Amino acid sequence: MKKVIAAVDAFNFTEQELRSYKYLAEKARGELTILFLENILGESVVFANANAESGYFDYDSLFGEEIRARGLKAEANKQKLKDFYRDNGMDVVVRELTGAPAAETIAESQFADLLLIRNTTSFAVLRDSNPPRFVRDLLADAHCPVMIIPENVHYIREIVFSYNGSLSSSYAIRQFTLLFGELSETPVKVVYVVENDEKRIPKGKLLKEYLNHHYEEVSYESFTGTPSAELMGLLLHAKNSVVTFGAYGRSRTSRFFHRSDADSLLRIGNVPVFITHP
SUPFAM superfamilies this protein is in (predicted)? Predict the structure, then answer.
């Protein structure tokens, strides 16, 4: 069984989100561990430091009542989460993490096969970016593949592999394939955006041989233009699809995988995005 972890904001999650994690963990034939990220002190500490006039704060006197109230709320939400999975016939592990959410999740990812996270999850006190900083940090620094999902993932009826011949793009395809062998009958579309006037799909023969081993139906499309624009146009009205990227924020070898391209796609928010690093 694979180990699938899902990062959940203890104070902001929905049953639709939890149901999506259940569906994807089952498709990966994995056991699901919920990282229940409480961050109870975070908001108080930020505001205290922002208004600091000295180097000392008695946090219990200033925020004790608020912290205790948030602790009770987190406990109630944890039980609600457990009840949901119990009532839906799934055994899950719930790991309570009270430290810095991104750092805690990245540490957990070192010993996981897949990390799931909702595309709007944010622990920012003030207005956050789109996609949120928390999501971007996980995409750049997680030690396992990451799938960023919209709130509702009912079915996956199409797999879109973005590909440019690079190691990172082929690695993402292989990692997704190894994780989601359950989707072997799902139609696959390989999307290649022409780079450097190379109209033929790089290493196309090897790619086709590999995919034919794992999938029953595979098609190929080549586009010219800006990679992010082409992919957004393809996926803007897509339903029940998932798309892979080969890197996020680490490699500058190909414009296909610049962070800005993935950010543009994440802003659409209607399809799961699978990203990993070699």
Answer: Adenine nucleotide alpha hydrolases-like (SSF52402)
pLDDT digits (tens, 9 = 90+) for 161-214: 999 888 889 999 999 999 999 999 999 999 987 776 777 899 999 999 999 999
Kindly list the distances between the CA atom of residue 274 and the CA atoms of 12, 18, 108, 117, in Å, as whole numbers in the listed order.
Answer: 23, 18, 18, 11
Inter-CA distances, 190 with 41, 165, 170, 233, Å: 45, 11, 11, 15
Q: Is the pLDDT of residue 30 over 80?
A: yes
**With bands split at pLDDT 50, 70 and 90, how would you rate the model's confidence at 5?**
very high
The answer regarding whether domain 2-149 maps to CATH 3.40.50.620 reads: yes
**For residue 126, what are its two tokens?**
């003030």
Bridge-based pairing of strands 146-149 and 273-275 is antiparallel
Distance CA 76, CA 82 (A): 10
From residue 49, give the alpha-carbon distance in Å to each of 42, 99, 124, 160, 247. Answer: 11, 17, 15, 45, 35
Q: Long-range CB contacts (< 8 A, 24+ apart) of 84-88?
A: 84/15, 84/18, 85/18, 85/22, 85/32, 88/19, 88/22
The torsion angles phi and psi of 268, rounded to 5 degrees, stand at -60, -45
Q: Tell me what the mean pLDDT of segment 246-271 comes to.
A: 62
Q: Does an H or E element contain 204, and which?
A: helix 204-214
- List the chain domain ranges: 2-149, 158-275
